[in-house]
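Subject: sequence -> structure tokens, single chain

Hey, anyone have a minute? Need the predicted structure for the following. Not urgent.
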Amino acid sequence: MNALFAYPPFTVTKVEQRFSRPPSFGILSTYPPTPCGLATFTAALSVGLSATGANVSVVRVADGAPSRSSRVVGELVNGSAASVAAGSEALNQSDIAVIQHEYGIYGGLDGEEVLDIIGGLSVPSIVVAHTILKNPTPHQRSVFEAIAARADQLVVMSEVASQRLRQDFTIDRRKVTTIPHGAAVPKTAPSKRSGRPTLLTWGLLGPGKGIERVIDVMGALQNLPGQPRYLVAGQTHPKVLAADGEAYRDARAEQARRGGVADSVAFDPDYRGVASLVALVQSCKAVVLPYDSTDQVTSGVLVDAIACGRPVVATAFPHAIELLGTGAGIVVGHDDPDALTAALLRLLTDPRVAGAMAAEARRLAPTMAWTSVANAYVTLAQRHLAARPGPR
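Reply:
Had a minute. Here:
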């Protein structure tokens, strides 16, 4: 079994059984309408936790666009000491605080203001680490180690992230727990696909996505039966858009024109909700994740692809190596266009290979369902609350 899914299941002790209701959660994070993966993750986790009967409130990292969600009980204004203090107090109104950690979303150098928020908590805290840097700067390391020291629990989403955290950082290893990234698992199988077979990459677009790798090899696929096409779906990342406009998207479209594959490469910049995105992923022949990163230990897009039962071709970033190791996809070198071409040819021309990968993805999918992930967070919260004295 893949290492990610091999961690021991949570069990409920007699002490935990004394709780008469699910704990309430206060979550600190970016949150919709902020267009980022962390906000999407938090919104989905909130829904999953609510489905267990837990009350969920969110302190949202402000970005200028107000949220209309009734779940949002306050907004954190980076750089404001008063807002930091108010954020801690809002989180203290719940039984347990969940801090979503990503570099760049909190104020101060390397997001060090989050330390003041954690320091102001009187309830147990769970820090969810979305990025574990392989080569952090000395200050990034010191900030993260200080976060780990103040938190009651650290959650990572892959075994490679857990290993990196335990080996490369000075932390209490007993605090580290692996809970997979959640995903929306479709309740129905995809309908029979018609038309041109589609290779799909989706997510917020910008440099580092590696779209150019797939465009480079599309010429070798043009003469296959059915004339496969490559669809790049998603809006340009807001920070990229603010700095460079649509330069990256325009450059990729021009690359396709120069390479003579413009008819086989399409860009869809529309925003998609969960249901629409799931339908799109289910309709594709395979998902391609050609990322530049050699360091990524968590990929929500990868998890979503597997949850939808689709074969995946990915460059060799750590989370892909881990999740695809049992046969749900193919991992290729970052600078190996021949391997990428061969992998796509196999999926497009050998139904047995594609079918076996899709079957393995469907086998893994239930473990990634938000219901399972939310239940793991509830049980983890109950453990910490059970360890603290006093009745509920």
